[in-house]
Amino acid sequence: MLKVIDLHCDVLYKLATMEEPLSYENADLLQANKMRLIAGKVHVQFFAIFISPEIPQKDKFMAVLRQIELFHTKVLAPNPEMVHITDWSQIDVLADGQIGAVLTLEGADAIGEDLSKLHAVLDAGVKLVGLTWNPANAIAHGADAEPILGLTDFGRQVVDVLNARNILVDVSHLNEQSFWDVIKVAKHLVASHSNARSLCDHPRNLTDEQAKALVDSGGHIHVVYYPHFIKAGGELVKLEDLIAHIKHFANLVGVQHLGLGSDFDGISVFIEELKDAGDTQHVVSALREHFSEEEVRGIAANNFKSYIQKVIATG
Ligand SMILES: [Zn+2]
User: Fold this and answer.
1) In this structure, what are the phi and psi dihedrals at residue 44, rounded to the nearest 5 degrees?
2) How many angstroms does the Cα of residue 50 sit away from the middle of ligand 1?
3) Which of 47, 76, 171, 262 has the fewest Cβ atoms within 10 Å of its own Cβ atom?
């Protein structure tokens, strides 16, 4: 079993929206609950704060604070093995049995046009920010937005703050124009949960040109387990179909720039052998059929660790 770093899950959104209170430790409804992270040997899990576009703008920031509170009261406090990663250097010193928990923001709609709200979210320990979810906001245009509209003037100010505070900028949900605008200005780039558009033509996936430009700009790509982003139609998708995206990106940009970003708890259809975080080692086994042990270790965790070393060095 190899330790894995997973760049995206939506546990906090589920904790915030399920009517019944859920135990983070073992609730069956949570695909990335603690017991499943342990079973799948997930060593560092990223937890996205995600606010539905249906929440009125005036209530969105409160909803962010609520998810931060749930991260503390449901994920961290009752589970002493869960360690809040507020400094990247903590990842390298996690003890066996400890699981790093990284707070991220998926779509920054909630800050409106108020940079002080962005600073407040970063002060809470958020280490990676996706500027949009699928719709547009005051910062940029998402995957569902008009493709020719990109980063706004306010969005440029947001990226400046993220750069100044050494925060990772996530391009996964951006539309094409926003992507091209953002990679020119963001210091630390990552696609936390995106696949290859040349294998599955979906606006959430990266074109070959985008993948190359992202890696040329120092970014990494973490593939996502969602069947609709793996194969058109999302029917009968197998683990091998996910591996095909990794092989495609490996040929295109180099395997050392790749990693994993499950999207557990943000998805409700699955690859048969990959239904929750407890199945994570199935990905590792499948990777071993195609890559050397060192390359598999890279995709599982070490590539991200190398990436983070550069982030730390520029801080
Ligand atoms: Zn997402």
Assistant:
1) -140, 125
2) 8
3) 76
Cα(9) to ligand 1 centroid in Å equals 8
Q: Where are the domains of the chain?
A: 4-314
123 CA distance to ligand 1 middle (Å)? 23
Selection from 112, 142, 145 nearest residue 130 by Cα: 142
pTM for the model: 0.97
Both structure tokens of 76: 């961290």
Instruction: Give which of 247, 175, 168, 239 is closest to 207, Cα–Cα.
Output: 175
Contact status, residue 288 vs residue 33, Cβ threshold 8 Å: no
Burial class (CB in 10 A: 0-12, 13-18, 19+), 28: exposed
**74 with 25: CB under 8 angstroms?**
no
- Please tell me the distance from the alpha carbon of residue 291 to that of residue 287, in angstroms, as a whole number: 6
CATH class of the domain comprising 4-314: alpha beta
Tell how far the Cα of 130 is from the centroid of ligand 1, in angstroms.
9
If you measure from the C-alpha of residue 270 to the centroid of ligand 1, how many angstroms do you get, rounded to a whole number?
Answer: 15
pLDDT tens, residue by residue, 30-51? 999 999 999 999 999 999 999 9
What would the pLDDT profile of 51-109 be if each residue is shown by its tens digit? 999 999 999 999 999 999 999 999 999 999 999 999 999 999 999 999 999 999 999 99
**Residue whose tokens read 């005051």:** 138
Distance from residue 39's CA to the centre of ligand 1 (Å):
24
